[in-house]
Amino acid sequence: MSGHARWAVELPALHHDASSATEYAMPAKVGFDRGELRGSGLPHIIGNSAALRRVLELARLVAPTDATILINGETGTGKELIAEAIHKWSDRSSGPFVKVNCAAIPAGLLESELFGHERGAFTGAVGRGIGRFERANRGTLFLDEVGDLPLELQPKLLRVMQERQFERLGGAATIHTDVRVICATHQNLMEMVNERQFRADLFYRLSVFPVELPPLRDRREDIPLLVHHFAMDYTARMGKPVAAIAEEFMAALARHSWPGNVRELQNFIERSVILSKGAVLKGLLPEPTYTRLSAPVTMEEAERSHILQTLQQTGGVLGGPNGAAARLSLPRTTLIAKMKRLRINGGRIETPPLNAFARDGASSGSSDAQSDVGRMYAPARPKEIHYAVSRGD
Fold first, then answer.
1. Whole-prediction pTM value?
2. Cβ-contact 317, 376 below 8 angstroms
């Protein structure tokens, strides 16, 4: 595929102990060229599936160009690793690789982060600030979670991508930049365009070369390689005596759906290594993933109940890759609008109570729910969540 990558089809050999229990052997020292993308400065991308190979082939083909790339994929599929691999394969590899998470930076600060600011541009701007576009000059700018980019900033991003120039916040001087832009999102930008939550012209400018990352459930043959890699990594870090992985445990991991993809698998293996006590990694098998809902009377109550439970799980965080909006597969702005419509404020339901909603339907009145400032809502205590969900029964 490339001089930077070496692949091997075979998995580590099976080991049979005296009791005839089959285990996946983990040698003390493994170079891990097997199933792992290796090369000078390249990120470690582990897998040998046809789905992953197709993605890497597309990445290799587009890397030498300056085309804008839009990487689509669920949370935890490794979008940043693919973006970094494209940068390393490109002619800009000697330049900077600058990352920006559009969901993690408050909307009021994102413009300054991207384009910089002059002294006195806003309260607290005591000096000139250099933005990410300037820092990424002659390199690559990676815009993660681009679907969370505020509408008011999208025209400015479109302009800098088309004309390769911009002005700092509060400044008049035009700055020219030579940047290759790679974007990533777990959201459906076309649906957001149809809902007028994302500019159509910017969408078409970003999606010159789309790359779709498969979820882990669509490349299950990569799970043993990933499990071995993570187990060896955490075993070495923690000084654990783990030397093999039980076959039953590996089979259960391969069957699991992994809605959180590689990130969820990595966290689970870390937890299993922490809890391990012997030379064979067994661990507790992952529980089936499902959502428990108390039987709601109406569709509105079901929606409200699901949002409340998700807010409780995320600690009230709305944006970001692990926020409530990502878990619900909704744009952050859509989730905030739904919370206002359903009178959800900080993980609690405002009066009137649920039975009043069931009688009167959704209210069009305003609520005291926060806007997107900080993109975080304080969750209610579990008993309050339970009370809000079950009161309409």
1. 0.65
2. yes
